[in-house]
Hints:
The structure holds 3 protein chains of 3 kinds.
Chain A: H1 2-11, H2 13-31, H3 66-102, H4 104-119, H5 122-133, H6 139-149, H7 152-166, H8 169-176, H9 181-217, H10 228-237, H11 247-274, H12 276-283
Chain B: E1 9-24, E2 27-42, E3 46-50, H1 57-65, E4 72-81, H2 95-101, E5 106-109, H3 113-116, H4 123-135, H5 139-152, H6 169-181, E6 187-191, H7 199-216, E7 219-223, H8 227-233, E8 236-241, E9 244-250, H9 251-256, H10 261-268, E10 317-320, E11 323-325
Parallel strand pairs in B: 3-7, 3-8, 5-6, 6-7
Antiparallel strand pairs in B: 1-2, 1-4, 8-9, 9-11, 10-11
Helix pairs in contact in B: 4-5, 6-7
Chain C: E1 3-16, E2 23-36, E3 42-46, H1 53-60, E4 68-73, E5 76-77, H2 83-87, E6 90-93, H3 108-117, H4 124-137, H5 142-145, H6 155-168, E7 173-177, H7 185-202, E8 205-210, H8 213-219, E9 222-227, E10 230-236, H9 237-242, H10 247-255
Parallel strand pairs in C: 3-8, 3-9, 6-7, 7-8
Antiparallel strand pairs in C: 1-2, 1-4, 4-5, 9-10
Amino acid sequence: MLVILRDLLRYNLEFRIGLVLVAIVLVMAGLSFVSPYPPGDVYLVPPDVPPSSAYWLGTTSRGQDVFWQLTFAIRNTLSFGIMVAVLSRLIALVVGLLAGYSGGWLDRVLMSINDTFIIIPLFPILILFYFVLRDSMSTPLLATIMACLGWSYDARLIRSVALSLKTREFTQTSIFSGMKTHEILAREHLPYVLPIVFSTTMNNMNWSIGIEVTLAVLGFTDINTPTIGGMIYWANQHTALVAGIWWWIAFPVALVVMTFIGLFLLAVSMNEYIDPRSRLARMGGSR
Amino acid sequence: MSAAPGRAPVLQVRDLQAHFRTRYFGVDREVRAVDGVGFDVRRNEIYGLAGESSSGKTTLVKTIAGLLKPPLEMVGGSARFSFLPEWDAVGRAPPEVVRRIRWRHLSYIMQGSMNVLNPLRRIRHSFRDFAWRHIGGGKREFDARAAAHLERVRLDPSVLSAYPHELSGGMRQRVTIALATICKPDFIIADEPTTALDVVVQKDVLGMIRSIQREMESSILFITHDMGVHAALTDRLGIMYAGRLVEDGETPEIFGRPLHPYTRHLIASLPRIGDVEQREGLEGTPPNLAMPPPGCRFHPRCPLAMPLCATTVPAMVETLPGHRVACHAVNPGAAA
Amino acid sequence: MSALLELDKVSKSFSRGGLFSSRRVDAVKEVSFTLDDGRPEIFTVIGESGSGKSTLARMILGINAASSGQVRLAGRDVASYERRAFMAQVQPIFQNPFEAFNPLKRLDRYLFMTAERFGGAADRAAAEELADGALRQVGLSLAEVSGRFPHELSGGQLQRVAVARALVARPRLIVADEPVSMVDASLRMSIVNLFGRLRDELGLSIIYITHDLATAYYISDRLIIMQKGMVVEAGPARAVLSAPSHPYSRQLRDAVLTPDSAGAFRARHPLKAAATPGATP
């Protein structure tokens, strides 16, 4: 894995750019731990100050320093994205591998559930959840809901790989070596599926962050937890653009765009390199 | 190499070298898939190439046909067709020349017939796509000609209206043979064309390849690992081992008097119905072409190996009239 | 003498097509034969693609259940066995040695796994000893295989490792489906001879599934010839192949090309009746 990382750094420009962008975003998120201001408090600094040496990215109409507020926002947004990605990857892996390998009625049941999730209109469901849960809607809860809605495409993808793995002779060799189903899935088939999981993780994070920002901007999330979408929501509430407080919106947008592009480039470049075929080729296998 | 009168060479391969050059994460690897191969294919003959997996026979054919794609590169030598006098290899000729000679002078019969035939189009359209350009004439005229040609490979003209999936494997392979031969090319490259077929169908298809070759007096370079097929079909035969040609000559001569120890083993190890003699496999494994053994590449497995074999590459020498072999034990003192 | 393996009118049919227009295709039709316990032999199943020989192998291995009829191992229906108890007695060898092992995993883990699960090895040391013993029987050793990935070995070596893995389980029967068709010619006979040694020295019975009549003649004791799911001819291998009586068997034997068929096509091939689409499925 370390060798792959080293070689990616050396030979892949997309990976380098992606890594730099993601690193900037991560550093921003990390700075939240040394923030001089608590994230929830307002009117700590003079409001509506443009970017200056005292307040690098300016201050909001609510008297918050945009820079430090942004560190909390990106941390929450990122951890939201990671939560959704990890949870939905787990569901997609279990469902995809099991459905593809077992076949028969289990496959049919799992895939009809899967297809139901694919066609469910996502946005109305999320808004419905918000109206039902209202104040008890927290970030982890939203992440769980999103994870439950965001695994279906990848589960289908993983299933199609598992289907072809099942017909390969080494699967029979594993069975006749006495391996149990879960061992075959975890040890024999998982390595072939992991590259897909890696690259879809990035895309899934982008997807969930995008949805979260949209929901937050519209005010359908827990607006007291600072997130990128939450910041834009408050800026809109204070008609920041009309009042000329552009920095309140521009910097969160810029940061989330950097996150998107960074994750996307990482996904693309890693997809290219962790593909089992190129991995095999690197190992010297010619078949 | 002396060509019999009236049997001018159509293809001359000289000291051909083709290597796989790869770079994975900064590590260069060079696999010498074809290393110094030379032979002639004459007019109106079937020249067979035999060899195991990784013997380089498919790479050789790709090089000759100009189908090399990176990481495969032609490193040295030449492969000259008589109908392409100014370019020493198809791969080095300009694209428009290659387009002109394809199908008309040079065509291919490949292993997977499904890859040639578009599964969504009727056979008639495949014929039009490939050959109409070269033959010309009206649509009806061309279809009539295609139908007549299909009868030559013993297929009913109604096959023209069929889709590939409606045909059996043997029939599909016959369609690809008809496609490859409708322009009466001078030279046909056949790469394992019957390997995927059942034996009964294979015999049929081989017979057809032979009869159509006789009729058109074209030359065929026929590649297969199956020595039985070579014995039955080819006029002359070259044996490849680990990227080099080790023996070539008239097919009956090779089977009747094999000189190279590898050829001898290949022929002797084939079991025959009605013969219960014990037959042995060859010890050892084919060499890794990224790190081939020095000298003769067969020496680590050779029963006749001498100290010389490990250091010096044996030269291809015409030991008997028209029968060349590269082996120190057969040709003492002939180093390449 | 009791029977090791009995096939009693075994059939397998698949349904093809959609919900409304499905039709049944008989892959194997009423195949019966018996392998005796205590008289180890190489029993060959000859057939071309579509003859049902691989489907038959999968039923003997218990991977697919028979549609009708019974496959019995030591007198008991294969379907009634606990899978692992069955696998300890019947082991497979597959066609493509490069596909028989996961290309991303080391080879030895399959040997050790089999040793622990079926060979009765209690710990790693015992598993290594079992694996080494089995590898030595096929002309390799654990030192040569240990830690290696499949792509580091040749096809012939991999196929021997596959045989060794099957041997580690100490089975009574090995089912080998086209085990040499993808092995290079120069290495093929060592695998075929290996089967002969397993029979003679270890007393193993082997079901050898192939389309190659010459190796069948060379190594097997009895054979059946299958066409379109049915057995068209059965009997002692050499007698049947020397003088086949069924027209299809004769056709098959006549199509075999050997070095002795030199010049089979030198004479002009007689024109036969033109084939029409759909004549052969």
